[in-house]
Amino acid sequence: MDRAVFIDAMRRAAASVTVVTTNGVAGRAGVTVSAMCSASADPPALLACIHQESTAVPAILGNGNFCVNILAEGQRHIAEWFAGLRREAAVDKFDCASWRDLGEYGLALDGALAVFGCRLAASHRVGSHFVLIGHPGIITRGDGLPLIYADRRFGVPLLQMPSEPPARLSPN
User: Fold this and answer.
1) What is the pLDDT of residues 97-121, one digit of tens each?
2) CA dist list (Å): 53 to 42, 50, 56, 81
3) Tens of pLDDT along 64-93?
4) Which of 15, 48, 101, 128 is most buried (most C-beta within 10 Å)?
5) How many CA atoms lie within 13 A of 79 on its CB side?
6) d(Cα 9, Cα 116) in Å, to the nearest integer?
7) pTM for the complete prediction?
8) Which parts of the chain are beta strand (E)?
9) Residue ranges of the domains in the chain?
10) Using an 8 Å Cβ cutoff, are 18 and 48 in contact?
11) Pick the CATH number of 3-155 from 3.30.499.10, 3.30.200.100, 3.40.50.720, 2.30.110.10
12) How far is residue 63 from each of residues 25, 114, 135, 152, measured CA to CA in Å?
């Protein structure tokens, strides 16, 4: 499989934008992530994929926790800070927003659409990324629309009700 073809096809997948954080003995770290999803409902588990070179990976592995913060539509600047798209000398990227320390569950973003504070259950290296699986111990929810990422751009979903019911397919 050609890498460029794969990347070009994957950029057509829309995903919620998240900031994955950690805090503890191995330090505080965070990174913008769009590769996050539910892994199981029973027991509740989710997974996040983080590039092997991210400074967040050794901190998450050392702390044994991570927090997935799903960003709301007005939080693009936070995604940009944690993706390294905004840089200013001597500025801590955590200063771009207000955070709550969840203890053994990482750092929660105030105003996030949803927060999943997780204990790290497993980590697996897959190619260039670490797949992290966590069991949430703390979940909070906010209101609004999610910030999404598709085709190398940030956006928000367009939600509209259909003017008529969708057509049903009939068997032939």
Assistant:
1) 999 999 999 999 999 999 999 999 9
2) 32, 8, 8, 17
3) 999 999 999 999 999 999 998 887 755 789
4) 48
5) 21
6) 29
7) 0.87
8) 15-16, 18-22, 29-33, 36-41, 44-51, 65-70, 99-101, 107-109, 114-126, 129-141, 148-150, 153-155
9) 3-155
10) yes
11) 2.30.110.10
12) 6, 22, 14, 31
Sequence-distant (≥ 6) Cβ neighbours of residue 96 within 8 angstroms? 77, 78, 81, 86
Name every residue whose Cβ is closer than 8 Å to that of residue 100 and which is 6 or more positions away in sequence. 107, 108, 110
Whole-angstrom distance, CA of residue 104 vs CA of residue 119:
7
Token pair 């751009």 is found at 153
Looking at residue 4, what is its pLDDT? 86
Question: Cis omega before residue 44 (within 30°)?
Answer: no
